[in-house]
């Protein structure tokens, strides 16, 4: 009997509620924090508590299923089995209460006892110098030495951004394909390579949040030792539902199937590229529906630009897979139905508005997409070694191609975009806009400039490389 994703989510929440955690509903994707562009992890709403800026709740424990958007993973969408832009992060949190040992013991108990994952298929990583975590896995939990990997800062030191609360972490991986033998019993005694994506999938990250990093990079111990954890619901569903990737779980598959039917194909027998596009549609549809439900509207900067980029990618992948004409409203209806059934009431309440906004943005883009594609094709076939900044700017300004999309399409053909020249074109456009706004009253330009600067800062702090500043609204 396979667990549905709703059952998987409930089991997580109940496990920690039973252990004294308060159930906290998912916060908005738009954080109440000017330094962060979008909610990228379950800890974001609790950041002030970790930093000691807000008093810890009583009891000092929380559990949540937090919706997240990570634009930094957009290139992985549809290509890896495990990455999305939008996903749900299951997390348990301790604010100066329990620490390492308890968090590790519970995480292991949850995976093996509640979800029934065979212990011999699990493996863990610890931060290279974290002997304490190593010893707890080894001696308290009983993980064999060859199933514990010591890893460096990039994988096992977690931070929500360049500054803020952070600390060493320990991750639990599931072995999708046992190294030897069938049935998952005969596992080799070789040291595990957790970077082997074909064999291992990272499920659960336990962050031992002990430090605050300031703007100079300096780490100072936080007043309290905290626990911050995260486990992707879609990944757990992949493993528990026995499907080859997150997109085939009950969370996303119905959207993929709807897209396939609109395109007149069948996912299971579709070619590799078509499958990738169908997965992108499955992912981006969820992302844009939830972003719109949380009040984000398409625009040319900040969060609005993230949304615009995702909608335009969605439209483009629809065309790539052979959908003719508008389709976004139809896949969105499926995503809305799924979200509503999982308890996202705001999505249900704002259903009409979401569909209307999507259809409007889709038609704005569709009206120029064909001509833009033709122009880009011409450029790509011209034999030029790079796509010039002026061409990329024309595609952006006249045809509505987010420059990241031009980069991506060019990249698929082995070409680069002259981004320096593109940025120059953008700067010139801003100058022109400033000149114009002087006619409409002094101050406008300065105010929007300040706004723009803040947005850039937010983008950089929140998700490095996650978004670009591309002009005024
Ligand atoms: P990976 O190494 O696989 O990219 P990560 O180390 O970047 O994952 P964390 O920041 O540790 O991920 O996030 C905690 C958990 O959230 C992960 O263990 C995973 O289960 C889930 N998760 C992270 N990023 C994504 C994503 N883009 N899509 C779906 N789930 C994700
Ligand atoms: Mg990652
Ligand atoms: Mg990782
Ligand atoms: Mg991780």
From TrEMBL:
Domain named Alanyl-transfer RNA synthetases family profile: residues: 3-473
Subcellular location: Mitochondrion; Cytoplasm
Domain remark from Swiss-Prot or TrEMBL: Consists of three domains; the N-terminal catalytic domain, the editing domain and the C-terminal C-Ala domain. The editing domain removes incorrectly charged amino acids, while the C-Ala domain, along with tRNA(Ala), serves as a bridge to cooperatively bring together the editing and aminoacylation centers thus stimulating deacylation of misacylated tRNAs.
Family note: Belongs to the class-II aminoacyl-tRNA synthetase family. Alax-L subfamily.
Protein's job: Catalyzes the attachment of alanine to tRNA(Ala) in a two-step reaction: alanine is first activated by ATP to form Ala-AMP and then transferred to the acceptor end of tRNA(Ala). Also edits incorrectly charged tRNA(Ala) via its editing domain.
Subunit structure: Monomer.
Protein name according to UniProt: Alanine--tRNA ligase
